[in-house]
Amino acid sequence: MPIQLNKGLIGREFPPFVVTIERGKIKDFARAIGDPNPFYLDDRVGQASEFGDVIAPPTFMTTFREAGGDNAEFLRELGTDISRLLHGEQEFELHRPLRPGDTLLCRSRIVDIYEKTGRSGPMGFVVRETAATDQSGEIVGTMRHITVVRL
Amino acid sequence: MKYARVYAEDVKVGDELPALVKGPIQQIQLTRYAGASGDFNPIHQDHEFARAAGMGDVFAHGMLSMGFVAQAVTDWAGAGRVRKIGVRFAAIVRLKDVITCRGRVLATSSKDDEHLVEVEIWAENQKGEKVVTGKATVALPSRA
After folding, report:
1. For testing the chain B interface, which of A19, A22, A59 should be mutated: the one with the most B CBs within 10 Å?
2. Which residue among A62, A124, B108, B127 is least packed, with the fewest CB closer than 10 Å?
């Protein structure tokens, strides 16, 4: 009997959290991917560019996490644990490049939870969306994360 | 040359992005990516944990592979040009895998002063299996 995910969590909003983008974090992230692009790594190239500073790679929003946030607690409520998770899909929409010093308010919610049976058996899907707004209230980016739960 | 500027007028449907080869994947890169991304799921670090979870061995973060395909896009279109990028993780990437990222222009459009190019993107392993598939939209400058 496969485990059941708690669909009562659809619509759950997580506490909003603030992220301030740090120069060194951008560079560590680009280096971890092995991307030597000078627009991410070289301050002088960034300052001379149309962006006025180094910018973050397109997938950098994935680093946005609530400091001290307890994902294990959410997974318990969902009815699973970290060992059963796979990353199914991911999407980013970026209205402008992110730069050091950007202070962003992030709001995250669960938009759907559903189950499907695939080649490797029953799977659960948890769809989470996060929107980041800057200090003028403009949305600068959104991300959509689909977690697969091996049931 | 690398990081040459691409203009909207230079791009047509069917154009292929230069292939980007990444890897072989090493444990140290997964550890480094965990630190840089904040994703410390032990399934990417701890062999015993990954085995007990039924995964055989550790495997790469999906987001690392997405970072690779995003690099293929920005190597071609330029940093700061990506407006949208979305992928599906089609297969697990293992240690020692060599990942080749590719792309092809699907559509171009212009509205007001913005020139958008939609590209199909994917990554395959050394056996030719697709590990990531998706699409990206980039905004390119115009020569005009």
Report:
1. A59
2. B127
Contact assessment for residue A79 and residue A3, using Cβ atoms and an 8 Å cutoff: yes
Nearest of A125, A69, A62 to residue A94 by alpha carbon: A62
SS3 A137: coil
Give me the residues paired with residue A139 across strands.
A133
Tens digits of residue pLDDT in B33-52? 999 999 999 999 999 999 99
Instruction: Give A73-130 pLDDT, tens digit per residue.
Output: 999 999 999 999 999 999 999 999 999 999 999 999 999 999 999 888 899 999 999 9
Give the dihedral of Cα atoms B32, B33, B38, B44; nearest 10 deg: -100
pTM of the model as a whole: 0.97
Q: Give mean pLDDT, residues A21-29.
A: 98
Give yes or no for B87 touching A (CB within 8 A): yes
pLDDT of residue A120: 80
Contacting A residues, span 16-35, partner chain B, CB-CB under 8 Å: 25, 28-29, 31-35
ipTM of the predicted assembly exceeds 0.95? yes
Tell whether B49 lies on the interface with A, counting CB pairs under 8 A. Answer: yes
Q: DSSP secondary structure string, A65-118? A: --TT--HHHHHHHHT--GGGEEEEEEEEEESS---TT-EEEEEEEEEEEEEEEE
Give yes or no for A116 touching B (CB within 8 A).
no
Q: Extract long-range pairs of A46-49: CB within 8 Å, 24+ residues apart.
A: A49/B80
